[in-house]
């Protein structure tokens, strides 16, 4: 959906009758890109539901549509096997007016659309700031947990009178590491394991200010000319996680610099410093694991405690979907 946002907004600005399709559930596919979208108007299309697979939905009615991808089509597109996709087709105008500009800014969003019979309601939009305010929505807590995983995902949720299509959209995560050395290398390796894009740099101010809610910055450098400007830049922007390695004395020195340079105490509270969960990490690899784990815990709103001590099911994220 991020890759079609500018085109859809352009069509809406021109008052063209654009329509949008999103994959909300699949059966049989071994892999897919959650959050992919296809849009079209007047014979012009943007995006794709599945990379390399052409899906003509121009004659489809609004609502849930099933699209079958044959084994031959799947292999040609680089997929291991075919399957059936449930696709939600809507007019672009069914989304809140600010949806497309938010996607152009690469904001994480949660989209809920209730489908009752042949009727498709307007899509509701939630952000990290208000997703838990959707208390009146079906299985709202489950939807919030799905969103707070910090990855794009989709599901169909069966309610008493309607099916709710849930689409959580998160841009790919970048991990900005300020400073170099063995810990930086270990962090890059851990980020790669999660499919994140690691960037190691000592000149991070511009990049730090451009981070989104999906991204994280970890400051390793202890040079005040490097670490503090990077932290100040990250705190001025939308970075989802701001972490800083170093002793208590180093953290105090950074706070003094930030205060002297106009960074509010409230903003400084966003810094996780010293960075990482308390696993008594010592080696570069252990430190990297503790920091990446804290990023995930911070994103999902959990404490990072032992799963053994959690009440209820082991896996709490996600929704009970329509079979």
Give a verbal description of the structure.
Strands 3-2-1-5-4 form a five-stranded antiparallel beta sheet. The protein has 323 residues and is α/β, with parallel strands linked by helices. The chain has helices spanning 5-13, 71-76, 99-104, 140-148, 182-193, 205-209, 224-235, 248-260, 265-268, 284-300; strands at residues 19-27, 37-41, 44-47, 63-69, 83-91, 109-116, 119-120, 124-126, 153-158, 163-169, 174-178, 197-201, 216-219, 241-244, 271-272.
Cα distance, first to last residue? 25 Å
Q: How many strands appear in the DSSP assignment?
A: 15
Provide the β-strand percentage band.
15-25%
What structural class do the secondary elements suggest? Answer: alpha/beta
Radius of gyration: 22 Å
Largest sheet: 5 strands, antiparallel
Shape: elongated
Which range best describes the helical content: under 10%, 10-25%, 25-40%, 40-55%, 55-70% or over 70%?
A: 25-40%
Mean of the pLDDT scores? 85
Number of helices: 10
Give the SSE order as H and E letters: HEEEEHEHEEEHEEEHEHEHEHHEH
Which spans have pLDDT < 50 for at least 5 consecutive residues? 319-323
Order of the strands making up the biggest sheet? 3-2-1-5-4
